[in-house]
Write a structure and sequence with these properties.
The protein is of the alpha+beta class. Strand 1 and strand 2 form a beta hairpin.
Length: 126
Amino acid sequence: MIPQSRPSGAEPVWPSHPYEAGEGTTARAGRGQAEATQGASLPAPSTRERVELTEREQKILAVLEQTYPGWRIHQFGRWWWATKTTPPTGIERSLGVIHQIARPDLVQLGQALSKQHGILTGIRSG
């Protein structure tokens, strides 16, 4: 996603929420970080309605919440979001930790959280 126009040398101005960026854009992971959706398009704002969870999704969600207590997991429209409860430090960001992840389903979100967990575990043990 390209930040809104800015004067030369000024910090980028990011939308306060991914839907403010407009249809077909991608979410940001945080200023200066990789995009949270890695190029996937967000749904149009009209898909914000609450989607009822299947039994399988409820089970996956419970496992993710128990496995990754440092992340707040929620659904926004048809997308699943995980937000790190504490923003990543400068060192964590430089190693690839992102503050927010968006994926179209819980399985993909779990895969992304696993990758983030691996980075964080490596930082703490190293």
